[in-house]
Amino acid sequence: MEHSMEHSREHPKLEQPKKKPHPAKAARARNPGLREIIGSVRKNEKFGAYDRVVAVCMMLVCVLCIGMLGVLEKNLPRPTEAKRQSFGQETEAGKTGRDKAAEAPKEKALDTGGTEKMAVLQLVVREPEYLTLEEDKAALSHCLRLHIPSNADPEEIRLFQSEDGRSVQLEMPQMGQVYFYNYSMVGHCSQITGMSYAGVGRTGVLEIQNNGVYVPRVSIEKSFLYLDFVKPKDYYDQIVLVDPGKGGEDSGTTVELLGKTYQEKEINYAIAKRIQALGEKALGGSKNGRISNWMEDAEEAGKKKTGFYLSRLGDDTKTEKQRLAYAKKLGAAIILSVHCNSTSTGRISGINGASVLYKQNDKTGRAEIFARNCLDALVEKLDCADKGLVMGAADSLVSASKLPLVKVKVGFMTNEMELKKLVTKEYQNKAAEALYDAVLKTLDSLEKMGK
Prior knowledge:
By secondary structure, this protein is of the alpha+beta class. It contains 16 helices and 17 strands. It folds into three domains: 19-75, no CATH class; 81-230, no CATH class; 234-450, 3-Layer(aba) Sandwich (Aminopeptidase).
């Protein structure tokens, strides 16, 4: 036992290996930062004069930085309402347009006579420094406001609308492509989904895409042009949907005569297009693009405004459901569907004349009045045979419509003599004039019935 105790006393004591400090902690120990210095102050630890100087300097720098940030926040220019709201909801296409416009060098001489296009969405929201707050508010009450340079004549500006009513083109002679770099545009732009700009010679062309069908309205005050877009039902007193039958894959009756092929859809569209043109002419004829045609003060006081819209454009394919839905969206009062007739077998025969289908279970009697007006007008104007009014219960379009709708059969394509007339512009114009007069007469009758 004694030996073992001695042995234990003589046995060397094992020393534990020292732990290496974490590299980050070691670095902080060599170069103490503000946190470590302040921490040591709180613990009343001793540190040298150099450490005290570093701590004071770092705290002063922090205080100065915070103060400068506050000053900058107060003095930085804040976006006005004109900039925040001038382009409300921007589409993905709009965002792409902004990126392209931002990349375009502003100092570049763009008035080169070419048709180089550029997106101008970003330019619309550019901050106009010379505007007062009151002018900003006035501008934001309009969809878009453009500045007219002093050397420009407003009467030379032209505004054209697309056939579908979903876009407009503004042509500004003597303004060139650099116009949008020198003059700002502001407005709420709520009906605009995109804009693009091109230059043709010294004429600037602004194309505006809308999010629906609208009627453009223009007003000029001082040196500003204000552009707004109004829904058709809020502008016109009454709206007529002219439906060119068939279209697209559905050619309708097809007849070959004297080596030529004639399709019903083409004749239907030609007549319907002419009816729409007559309606536009009655409103002053805006096709020449004159700004005065789009201004409210150019309209005659008390004159009824009737808008004529087509259910399809060109050779589009439209289902009956789509045609009726479009009439409802427009707020149409009546629907005029233009067609041609044929024999059930499609063979050439001596049967000829005009007929009109209508909804016989219309308790108001409005559809029958409409049908009678159309048939009488066609027979008188075209000097054709009267094939009478036809109950349209078996016709899906006629029976499905909740509005007064008539399906006019202008003539028989399976009659050689009548087909020769139907394919001529003169005969098509006569048919269009007859149906246009019948529409106006019907609208007048329906208004009286409503009272």
